[in-house]
Write a structure and sequence with these properties.
Length: 127
């Protein structure tokens, strides 16, 4: 949050209309991007944090596996990271869309080159 402070408290993030034109910077889009970025980073940590506990507890009851539990747990963590990070990145793409009605007032009545109202903007939210 501190490194990306300008996105949600300062100048905002550039927003792009349906024709690919940058129409200005929006703090509201910056806040939405920060939230989505936070959620993806939170979600991709769940599998590597939860899987070892859920899997190693039953495995710890098997006497033959006690000597190898460190390696088993490390392997389960790697599988969790291998599953969690790609799934979170796939769910939360680097670019996000936001309705014009949800943005600052200066973006609500903009029109494209055809004279049609711009209803949705795209912005880079990060990963």
């Amino acid at each position: 949050g501190i490194m990306r402070w300008a996105e949600w408290q300062g100048e905002g993030v550039p927003i792009i209309d349906d024709e690919g034109n940058t129409r200005g910077n929006s703090q509201i889009a910056g806040k939405a991007g920060m939230y989505k970025c936070f959620m993806s980073r939170f979600l991709w940590n769940i599998p590597p944090m939860m899987m070892p506990a859920l899997i190693t507890i039953p495995l710890s009851r098997v006497a033959r596996l006690h000597r190898h539990m460190k390696f088993i747990e490390a392997g389960i963590c790697l599988v969790g990271i291998g599953m969690g990070v790609p799934l979170a990145l796939a769910y939360f793409k680097p670019y996000a869309s936001i309705a014009a009605a949800d943005l600052e007032p200066q973006f609500r009545d903009l029109k494209n080159s055809k004279g049609e109202p711009v209803k949705e903007f795209t912005f880079y939210k990060g990963i």
